[in-house]
Amino acid sequence: MPRIAVVPGDGIGIDVTREAVKVLEKLSEISKLKLELVHFDYGADKYLKTGISLPDEAIEDFGKNYDAIFMGALGDPRIPDMAHAKDILLGARFKLDLYVNFRPVRLLDERLSPLRGKGVKEIDFVVFRENTEGIYAGIGGNIKKGTPDEVAIQESLNTRKGVERIIRYAFEHAKKFNLPKLTMSDKGNAMQFEGDLWLRTFEEVGEEYPDIEKEHMYIDALVMQLVKNPERFNAIVTCNMFGDIVTDLGGILQGGLGIAASGNINPEGVSMFEPVHGSAPKYAGTNTANPIAAILTAQMMLDHLGYAREAELVMKAVTKAIRTDNSTRDLGGKLGTREVGDYICSELERTAG
Ligand code: NAD
Ligand code: IPM
Ligand code: MN
User: Fold this and answer.
1) pLDDT tens digits for range 157-207
2) For residue 242, how far is its CA from the centre of ligand 3 (angstroms)?
3) 105 near 308, Cβ under 8 Å?
4) Where are the domains of the chain?
5) Domain 1-99+266-353, CATH
6) Assigned CATH for 100-262
7) 107 secondary structure, DSSP code
8) Cα of 276 to ligand 1 centre, how many Å?
9) Atom of ligand 1 nearest to the CA of 289
10) For ligand 2, is residue 87 a contact (CB within 6 Å)?
11) Residue 18 burial by CB count (10 A; 0-12/13-18/19+): exposed, middle or buried?
Protein backbone atom coordinates (compact mmCIF):
# COMPACT_ATOMS: atom_id res chain seq x y z
CA MET A 1 0.00 0.00 0.00
CA PRO A 2 1.51 3.37 -0.99
CA ARG A 3 2.45 5.53 1.99
CA ILE A 4 2.06 9.28 1.75
CA ALA A 5 3.70 11.79 4.07
CA VAL A 6 1.25 14.66 4.51
CA VAL A 7 2.69 18.03 5.56
CA PRO A 8 -0.13 20.63 5.66
CA GLY A 9 2.33 23.39 6.63
CA ASP A 10 1.08 26.91 7.35
CA GLY A 11 -1.86 29.23 6.74
CA ILE A 12 -4.31 28.09 4.10
CA GLY A 13 -2.00 25.13 3.46
CA ILE A 14 -3.72 23.55 6.45
CA ASP A 15 -7.22 24.41 5.19
CA VAL A 16 -6.73 23.11 1.66
CA THR A 17 -4.77 19.99 2.65
CA ARG A 18 -7.68 18.95 4.86
CA GLU A 19 -9.90 18.93 1.76
CA ALA A 20 -7.38 17.10 -0.43
CA VAL A 21 -7.07 14.45 2.29
CA LYS A 22 -10.85 14.21 2.48
CA VAL A 23 -10.95 13.51 -1.26
CA LEU A 24 -8.23 10.85 -0.96
CA GLU A 25 -10.10 9.22 1.93
CA LYS A 26 -13.35 9.27 -0.02
CA LEU A 27 -11.61 7.59 -2.95
CA SER A 28 -10.27 4.91 -0.60
CA GLU A 29 -13.86 4.18 0.43
CA ILE A 30 -15.32 3.94 -3.05
CA SER A 31 -12.52 2.70 -5.32
CA LYS A 32 -9.57 0.36 -5.37
CA LEU A 33 -7.32 3.11 -4.08
CA LYS A 34 -5.58 2.24 -0.86
CA LEU A 35 -3.24 4.80 0.67
CA GLU A 36 -1.68 5.14 4.07
CA LEU A 37 -1.60 8.83 4.96
CA VAL A 38 0.82 9.83 7.70
CA HIS A 39 0.58 13.42 8.97
CA PHE A 40 3.53 15.60 9.99
CA ASP A 41 3.31 18.97 11.73
CA TYR A 42 6.37 20.63 10.21
CA GLY A 43 5.68 24.33 9.75
CA ALA A 44 5.80 27.72 11.43
CA ASP A 45 4.25 26.73 14.78
CA LYS A 46 6.64 23.86 15.31
CA TYR A 47 9.59 25.98 14.23
CA LEU A 48 8.68 28.81 16.61
CA LYS A 49 8.18 26.40 19.51
CA THR A 50 11.14 24.08 18.96
CA GLY A 51 13.46 25.60 16.35
CA ILE A 52 12.88 22.50 14.22
CA SER A 53 12.07 23.13 10.57
CA LEU A 54 12.61 19.87 8.66
CA PRO A 55 15.37 17.72 10.11
CA ASP A 56 17.62 15.71 7.82
CA GLU A 57 16.33 12.51 9.42
CA ALA A 58 12.80 13.39 8.33
CA ILE A 59 13.94 13.95 4.75
CA GLU A 60 15.77 10.64 4.88
CA ASP A 61 12.66 8.97 6.28
CA PHE A 62 10.48 10.46 3.51
CA GLY A 63 12.97 9.33 0.88
CA LYS A 64 13.22 5.78 2.21
CA ASN A 65 9.85 4.93 3.66
CA TYR A 66 7.28 6.87 1.63
CA ASP A 67 5.97 6.74 -1.92
CA ALA A 68 5.16 10.45 -2.09
CA ILE A 69 4.93 13.61 -0.03
CA PHE A 70 1.89 15.85 -0.06
CA MET A 71 2.55 19.39 1.10
CA GLY A 72 0.12 22.29 1.67
CA ALA A 73 2.06 25.56 1.73
CA LEU A 74 4.64 27.26 3.89
CA GLY A 75 5.13 30.83 4.95
CA ASP A 76 4.20 32.76 8.07
CA PRO A 77 4.41 36.50 8.80
CA ARG A 78 5.98 35.71 12.21
CA ILE A 79 9.04 34.38 10.36
CA PRO A 80 9.79 37.17 7.89
CA ASP A 81 12.99 35.65 6.52
CA MET A 82 11.09 32.47 5.61
CA ALA A 83 13.83 30.42 7.30
CA HIS A 84 11.58 27.43 8.09
CA ALA A 85 9.84 27.53 4.72
CA LYS A 86 13.15 27.54 2.88
CA ASP A 87 14.37 24.62 4.97
CA ILE A 88 11.22 22.61 4.41
CA LEU A 89 10.26 23.42 0.84
CA LEU A 90 13.62 24.04 -0.76
CA GLY A 91 15.24 21.50 1.60
CA ALA A 92 12.98 18.74 0.35
CA ARG A 93 13.36 19.81 -3.28
CA PHE A 94 17.14 19.87 -3.06
CA LYS A 95 17.88 17.00 -0.72
CA LEU A 96 15.49 14.58 -2.40
CA ASP A 97 16.76 15.79 -5.79
CA LEU A 98 13.26 16.64 -7.02
CA TYR A 99 14.65 18.11 -10.19
CA VAL A 100 11.45 18.40 -12.19
CA ASN A 101 8.89 20.96 -11.16
CA PHE A 102 5.89 20.03 -13.28
CA ARG A 103 3.17 22.64 -13.49
CA PRO A 104 0.37 22.08 -15.99
CA VAL A 105 -1.66 25.07 -17.15
CA ARG A 106 -5.07 24.06 -18.35
CA LEU A 107 -8.17 26.21 -18.41
CA LEU A 108 -11.08 24.01 -17.28
CA ASP A 109 -13.89 26.43 -18.04
CA GLU A 110 -14.14 29.25 -20.59
CA ARG A 111 -15.61 31.60 -18.00
CA LEU A 112 -12.42 31.57 -15.95
CA SER A 113 -10.25 32.84 -18.76
CA PRO A 114 -8.73 36.24 -18.00
CA LEU A 115 -7.99 36.73 -21.70
CA ARG A 116 -10.56 37.95 -24.18
CA GLY A 117 -11.15 35.38 -26.92
CA LYS A 118 -8.94 32.70 -25.35
CA GLY A 119 -10.67 29.61 -24.05
CA VAL A 120 -10.05 25.98 -23.16
CA LYS A 121 -8.57 25.23 -26.59
CA GLU A 122 -6.07 28.06 -26.38
CA ILE A 123 -4.94 27.77 -22.76
CA ASP A 124 -3.50 24.29 -22.42
CA PHE A 125 0.23 23.77 -21.93
CA VAL A 126 2.68 22.35 -19.42
CA VAL A 127 5.68 23.97 -17.76
CA PHE A 128 8.83 22.14 -16.70
CA ARG A 129 10.75 24.22 -14.22
CA GLU A 130 14.26 23.16 -13.23
CA ASN A 131 13.96 22.66 -9.49
CA THR A 132 17.38 22.10 -7.92
CA GLU A 133 19.73 24.72 -9.37
CA GLY A 134 19.83 28.25 -10.75
CA ILE A 135 19.48 31.22 -8.48
CA TYR A 136 17.86 28.97 -5.84
CA ALA A 137 21.15 27.19 -5.12
CA GLY A 138 21.80 29.70 -2.33
CA ILE A 139 25.30 30.57 -3.46
CA GLY A 140 26.43 34.03 -2.52
CA GLY A 141 26.95 36.25 0.41
CA ASN A 142 27.26 39.79 1.58
CA ILE A 143 29.89 42.02 3.06
CA LYS A 144 29.74 45.32 4.88
CA LYS A 145 26.08 44.68 5.64
CA GLY A 146 24.23 47.72 6.86
CA THR A 147 26.86 50.17 5.62
CA PRO A 148 26.77 52.35 2.52
CA ASP A 149 29.38 50.01 1.00
CA GLU A 150 27.26 46.89 1.38
CA VAL A 151 27.69 44.25 -1.32
CA ALA A 152 25.26 41.39 -1.96
CA ILE A 153 26.04 38.60 -4.41
CA GLN A 154 23.65 35.85 -5.49
CA GLU A 155 25.01 33.39 -8.01
CA SER A 156 23.07 31.23 -10.43
CA LEU A 157 24.33 27.66 -10.57
CA ASN A 158 23.82 25.71 -13.80
CA THR A 159 25.37 22.32 -14.41
CA ARG A 160 25.37 20.42 -17.68
CA LYS A 161 23.87 17.43 -15.85
CA GLY A 162 21.15 19.52 -14.23
CA VAL A 163 20.20 21.36 -17.41
CA GLU A 164 20.30 18.22 -19.51
CA ARG A 165 18.07 16.13 -17.27
CA ILE A 166 15.25 18.68 -17.06
CA ILE A 167 15.37 19.30 -20.81
CA ARG A 168 15.37 15.56 -21.53
CA TYR A 169 12.45 15.04 -19.14
CA ALA A 170 10.48 17.76 -20.96
CA PHE A 171 11.21 16.19 -24.36
CA GLU A 172 10.21 12.75 -23.05
CA HIS A 173 6.94 14.17 -21.75
CA ALA A 174 6.25 15.86 -25.09
CA LYS A 175 6.95 12.57 -26.88
CA LYS A 176 4.76 10.52 -24.54
CA PHE A 177 1.80 12.89 -24.84
CA ASN A 178 2.27 13.72 -28.53
CA LEU A 179 2.88 17.40 -27.90
CA PRO A 180 4.09 18.92 -31.16
CA LYS A 181 6.41 21.56 -29.74
CA LEU A 182 8.75 22.26 -26.82
CA THR A 183 9.78 25.86 -26.08
CA MET A 184 12.96 26.52 -24.10
CA SER A 185 13.17 29.90 -22.46
CA ASP A 186 16.18 31.70 -21.02
CA LYS A 187 17.68 35.16 -20.94
CA GLY A 188 20.77 34.39 -22.96
CA ASN A 189 20.99 37.90 -24.38
CA ALA A 190 21.90 39.16 -20.90
CA MET A 191 22.99 36.04 -19.02
CA GLN A 192 25.31 34.72 -21.66
CA PHE A 193 27.08 31.86 -19.87
CA GLU A 194 23.94 30.32 -18.52
CA GLY A 195 22.08 30.97 -21.77
CA ASP A 196 24.83 29.35 -23.81
CA LEU A 197 24.70 26.18 -21.71
CA TRP A 198 20.92 25.97 -21.88
CA LEU A 199 20.71 26.60 -25.63
CA ARG A 200 23.50 24.18 -26.58
CA THR A 201 22.02 21.49 -24.36
CA PHE A 202 18.54 22.09 -25.76
CA GLU A 203 19.81 21.77 -29.33
CA GLU A 204 21.91 18.69 -28.60
CA VAL A 205 19.25 16.81 -26.65
CA GLY A 206 16.68 17.98 -29.20
CA GLU A 207 18.44 16.03 -31.93
CA GLU A 208 17.19 12.87 -30.24
CA TYR A 209 13.61 14.07 -30.79
CA PRO A 210 13.31 14.79 -34.51
CA ASP A 211 9.50 14.77 -34.43
CA ILE A 212 9.17 17.52 -31.84
CA GLU A 213 9.43 21.12 -32.95
CA LYS A 214 12.03 23.04 -30.97
CA GLU A 215 11.59 26.69 -30.18
CA HIS A 216 13.79 29.07 -28.25
CA MET A 217 12.38 32.25 -26.76
CA TYR A 218 13.80 34.80 -24.35
CA ILE A 219 11.83 34.93 -21.13
CA ASP A 220 10.62 38.51 -21.61
CA ALA A 221 9.21 37.66 -25.03
CA LEU A 222 7.73 34.45 -23.66
CA VAL A 223 5.67 36.15 -20.92
CA MET A 224 4.36 38.60 -23.50
CA GLN A 225 3.42 35.75 -25.88
CA LEU A 226 1.79 33.78 -23.06
CA VAL A 227 -0.71 36.59 -22.67
CA LYS A 228 -1.05 37.42 -26.36
CA ASN A 229 -1.04 33.95 -27.92
CA PRO A 230 -1.16 31.23 -25.26
CA GLU A 231 -2.25 28.76 -27.94
CA ARG A 232 1.21 28.75 -29.46
CA PHE A 233 2.58 26.84 -26.44
CA ASN A 234 2.40 23.11 -25.77
CA ALA A 235 5.30 22.68 -23.37
CA ILE A 236 7.82 25.06 -21.86
CA VAL A 237 11.11 24.20 -20.19
CA THR A 238 13.04 26.80 -18.23
CA CYS A 239 15.26 27.46 -15.23
CA ASN A 240 14.20 27.60 -11.62
CA MET A 241 13.47 31.31 -11.25
CA PHE A 242 11.88 31.93 -14.64
CA GLY A 243 9.79 28.80 -14.03
CA ASP A 244 8.63 30.20 -10.71
CA ILE A 245 7.50 33.45 -12.30
CA VAL A 246 5.99 31.93 -15.42
CA THR A 247 3.89 29.48 -13.40
CA ASP A 248 2.22 32.22 -11.37
CA LEU A 249 1.27 33.76 -14.70
CA GLY A 250 0.16 30.27 -15.78
CA GLY A 251 -1.91 30.06 -12.61
CA ILE A 252 -3.82 33.19 -13.54
CA LEU A 253 -4.31 31.99 -17.12
CA GLN A 254 -6.12 28.92 -15.81
CA GLY A 255 -8.35 30.83 -13.43
CA GLY A 256 -6.15 31.79 -10.51
CA LEU A 257 -3.76 30.37 -7.97
CA GLY A 258 -6.72 28.65 -6.35
CA ILE A 259 -6.62 26.06 -9.15
CA ALA A 260 -2.93 25.67 -10.04
CA ALA A 261 -1.39 22.27 -9.22
CA SER A 262 2.26 21.33 -9.04
CA GLY A 263 4.52 18.32 -8.66
CA ASN A 264 8.17 18.20 -7.62
CA ILE A 265 9.31 15.03 -9.30
CA ASN A 266 12.29 12.81 -8.89
CA PRO A 267 11.73 10.27 -11.67
CA GLU A 268 13.96 7.79 -9.88
CA GLY A 269 12.76 8.37 -6.32
CA VAL A 270 10.06 9.79 -4.11
CA SER A 271 8.23 12.89 -5.36
CA MET A 272 6.53 15.75 -3.57
CA PHE A 273 3.24 17.35 -4.55
CA GLU A 274 2.13 20.85 -3.51
CA PRO A 275 -0.12 23.48 -5.02
CA VAL A 276 1.55 26.47 -6.72
CA HIS A 277 0.01 28.91 -4.26
CA GLY A 278 1.41 29.92 -0.90
CA SER A 279 0.01 30.10 2.62
CA ALA A 280 -2.04 33.30 2.02
CA PRO A 281 -1.96 34.10 5.78
CA LYS A 282 -4.77 36.63 5.48
CA TYR A 283 -7.22 33.88 4.59
CA ALA A 284 -5.94 31.20 6.95
CA GLY A 285 -8.71 29.50 8.90
CA THR A 286 -11.48 31.57 7.30
CA ASN A 287 -12.92 28.72 5.19
CA THR A 288 -12.49 30.87 2.06
CA ALA A 289 -9.38 29.42 0.37
CA ASN A 290 -10.03 27.45 -2.77
CA PRO A 291 -9.09 23.80 -2.15
CA ILE A 292 -9.10 22.91 -5.86
CA ALA A 293 -5.39 23.56 -6.41
CA ALA A 294 -4.65 21.13 -3.58
CA ILE A 295 -7.22 18.62 -4.83
CA LEU A 296 -5.80 18.77 -8.37
CA THR A 297 -2.35 18.37 -6.82
CA ALA A 298 -3.60 15.19 -5.13
CA GLN A 299 -4.99 14.18 -8.52
CA MET A 300 -1.53 14.64 -10.04
CA MET A 301 -0.06 12.54 -7.24
CA LEU A 302 -2.56 9.74 -7.90
CA ASP A 303 -1.69 9.77 -11.57
CA HIS A 304 2.00 9.66 -10.69
CA LEU A 305 1.44 6.67 -8.39
CA GLY A 306 -0.36 4.78 -11.18
CA TYR A 307 -3.97 5.39 -10.12
CA ALA A 308 -5.06 6.74 -13.49
CA ARG A 309 -8.73 5.84 -13.08
CA GLU A 310 -9.05 7.51 -9.70
CA ALA A 311 -7.17 10.54 -11.01
CA GLU A 312 -9.64 10.78 -13.88
CA LEU A 313 -12.58 10.64 -11.47
CA VAL A 314 -11.14 13.53 -9.48
CA MET A 315 -10.52 15.58 -12.63
CA LYS A 316 -14.14 15.06 -13.71
CA ALA A 317 -15.52 15.97 -10.28
CA VAL A 318 -13.38 19.13 -10.10
CA THR A 319 -14.37 20.17 -13.62
CA LYS A 320 -18.02 19.72 -12.74
CA ALA A 321 -17.62 21.72 -9.51
CA ILE A 322 -16.09 24.59 -11.46
CA ARG A 323 -18.61 24.50 -14.30
CA THR A 324 -21.61 24.40 -11.95
CA ASP A 325 -20.33 27.19 -9.69
CA ASN A 326 -19.86 24.87 -6.76
CA SER A 327 -16.76 26.88 -6.03
CA THR A 328 -15.19 29.46 -3.74
CA ARG A 329 -15.50 33.18 -4.31
CA ASP A 330 -12.19 33.52 -6.22
CA LEU A 331 -13.94 31.57 -9.00
CA GLY A 332 -17.20 33.47 -8.62
CA GLY A 333 -18.88 30.83 -6.44
CA LYS A 334 -20.42 31.09 -3.00
CA LEU A 335 -19.10 27.99 -1.24
CA GLY A 336 -16.51 27.75 1.48
CA THR A 337 -13.36 25.63 1.44
CA ARG A 338 -15.03 22.70 3.23
CA GLU A 339 -18.18 22.83 1.15
CA VAL A 340 -16.19 22.61 -2.10
CA GLY A 341 -14.41 19.55 -0.67
CA ASP A 342 -17.78 18.06 0.29
CA TYR A 343 -19.23 18.72 -3.15
CA ILE A 344 -16.29 17.04 -4.87
CA CYS A 345 -16.58 14.05 -2.53
CA SER A 346 -20.28 13.73 -3.28
CA GLU A 347 -19.57 13.88 -7.03
CA LEU A 348 -16.97 11.14 -6.59
CA GLU A 349 -19.48 9.00 -4.78
CA ARG A 350 -22.08 9.59 -7.49
CA THR A 351 -19.75 8.79 -10.40
CA ALA A 352 -17.58 6.02 -8.97
CA GLY A 353 -20.17 3.36 -9.74
P1 NAD B 1 0.00 33.31 -1.95
O2 NAD B 1 -0.06 32.35 -3.06
O3 NAD B 1 -0.04 32.74 -0.58
O4 NAD B 1 -1.24 34.31 -2.06
C5 NAD B 1 -1.36 35.33 -3.04
C6 NAD B 1 -2.83 35.63 -3.29
O7 NAD B 1 -3.35 34.63 -4.16
C8 NAD B 1 -3.71 35.55 -2.06
O9 NAD B 1 -3.76 36.76 -1.36
C10 NAD B 1 -5.04 35.17 -2.65
O11 NAD B 1 -5.69 36.31 -3.16
C12 NAD B 1 -4.66 34.29 -3.81
N13 NAD B 1 -4.69 32.86 -3.46
C14 NAD B 1 -3.62 32.05 -3.30
N15 NAD B 1 -4.03 30.79 -3.04
C16 NAD B 1 -5.38 30.83 -3.04
C17 NAD B 1 -6.40 29.84 -2.82
N18 NAD B 1 -6.12 28.56 -2.57
N19 NAD B 1 -7.70 30.23 -2.89
C20 NAD B 1 -8.00 31.50 -3.15
N21 NAD B 1 -7.10 32.46 -3.38
C22 NAD B 1 -5.80 32.13 -3.31
O23 NAD B 1 1.29 34.22 -2.15
P24 NAD B 1 1.95 35.34 -1.22
O25 NAD B 1 0.88 36.14 -0.56
O26 NAD B 1 2.94 36.00 -2.06
O27 NAD B 1 2.72 34.52 -0.10
C28 NAD B 1 2.23 34.18 1.18
C29 NAD B 1 3.24 33.29 1.87
O30 NAD B 1 3.33 32.03 1.19
C31 NAD B 1 4.66 33.86 1.84
O32 NAD B 1 5.28 33.52 3.06
C33 NAD B 1 5.32 33.14 0.66
O34 NAD B 1 6.70 33.09 0.74
C35 NAD B 1 4.69 31.78 0.78
N36 NAD B 1 4.65 30.97 -0.45
C37 NAD B 1 4.75 29.62 -0.29
C38 NAD B 1 4.64 28.78 -1.38
C39 NAD B 1 4.68 27.30 -1.18
O40 NAD B 1 4.65 26.85 -0.05
N41 NAD B 1 4.77 26.51 -2.20
C42 NAD B 1 4.37 29.32 -2.65
C43 NAD B 1 4.26 30.72 -2.78
C44 NAD B 1 4.38 31.54 -1.67
C1 IPM C 1 6.79 28.23 -5.38
C2 IPM C 1 7.16 29.27 -4.34
C3 IPM C 1 8.57 29.02 -3.79
C4 IPM C 1 9.53 29.10 -4.96
C5 IPM C 1 8.97 29.98 -2.66
C6 IPM C 1 8.02 29.93 -1.50
C7 IPM C 1 10.38 29.74 -2.19
O8 IPM C 1 7.05 30.55 -4.86
O9 IPM C 1 6.74 27.03 -5.03
O10 IPM C 1 6.52 28.59 -6.52
O11 IPM C 1 9.98 30.18 -5.31
O12 IPM C 1 9.82 28.05 -5.51
MN1 MN D 1 6.17 30.58 -6.85
Assistant:
1) 999 999 999 999 999 999 999 999 999 999 999 999 999 999 999 999 999
2) 10
3) no
4) 1-99+266-353, 100-262
5) 3.40.718.10
6) 3.40.718.10
7) -
8) 8
9) 19
10) no
11) middle
